[in-house]
């Protein structure tokens, strides 16, 4: 194998790692495409009483920090060029992921696990992802895969406006633990990542800040900001989840089952939110060394208790009420 080829393969693996790392929750996401689902004329979606958000602009539900940092990256002089580079690299990464999933996971369709396929279509319809008249900027209906794993997780990987549909993967462990509304809420979270193109912008943010990391005293600050951005992206997508479920108890139920690792007993959302308050109080009064050590922990996702508390706060907000008012009950 030539040095050039080795370098190229290493580069692809690096890209894959960056893209996967940049687009997760403990519900992670990737995306890919399928020909059978790649049909924008989806008939036979039973009507639901939920509000539908046709043409929903993702800036409406982005967490403020996510909104601010994404806008800065979009406005940066390098942005267009870097975006083009990533958009050219992505298909290779997606192709590898897609082939891997096709070889070892179960792809959901009208014929395969139709109940889950319906949940996906309905979530897409509510978030305005499915349109009769698609444009090149629209997101295609994602391919949904079920992967066997003892780890409860979900993830997505995709860019907008590409020929191939995005990919969403949900693991068997998460599927077994959740009710159908909760599974749909999880799909909604992943659709949020797709609508916001977190894979693209978080990767761009990481690339743009790389030179700053080498400056004296800047490395830690830059890493912390990127870390906060990744956490804010998760809050954003919990909001997308709520927009799909339109019931915060459903979203919180899915999250708590994920964090507790069991669905054997029913659990209280209110008690879990109170646990967040208790955590914050105890953290404040903790030994400074302990506190510093906890705060320095690098996490790809927000603290579980904080996530549920943030979700409940947004569910009570005027911002959420106004988005609901802006939708139609078609
Ligand atoms: Zn996520």
Concise summary:
Helices cover 59% and strands 5% of the residues.
Name a few traits of the molecule:
single chain; disordered N terminus; 59% helix; 13 helices; mainly alpha; binds zinc ion; 4-stranded mixed sheet; 330 residues
Structural class: mainly alpha
Helix content: 55-70%
Spatial strand order of the main sheet: 1-2-4-3
| Structure summary, number of beta strands | 4
Number of separate structural domains: 1
Q: What value does the average pLDDT take?
A: 78
Bound molecules: zinc ion
Compute the number of helices. Answer: 13
The profile of the biggest β sheet is: 4 strands, mixed
Shape: globular
Radius of gyration: 20 Å
- Which blocks of ≥5 consecutive residues have pLDDT under 50? 1-26, 28-46
Span between termini: 58 Å
Order of helices and strands: HHHEHEEEHHHHHHHHH
Strand coverage percent: under 5%
Describe it.
With 330 residues, this protein is mostly helical. It has one domain (19-326). It is 59% helix and 5% strand. The protein has helices at 3-21, 64-75, 79-104, 114-126, 172-177, 180-196, 198-213, 219-245, 248-260, 269-284, 288-296, 304-315, 318-326, and strands spanning 106-107, 143-147, 154-157, 167-171. A four-stranded mixed sheet has the order 1-2-4-3, with helices on both faces. Helix 2 crosses helix 7 (198-213) and helix 9 (248-260) runs antiparallel to helix 12. 39% of the residues are buried. Mean pLDDT is 78; it is low at 1-26 and 28-46. It binds zinc ion. Zinc ion is lined by residues 24-25, 27, 29, 189, 193, 234, 237.
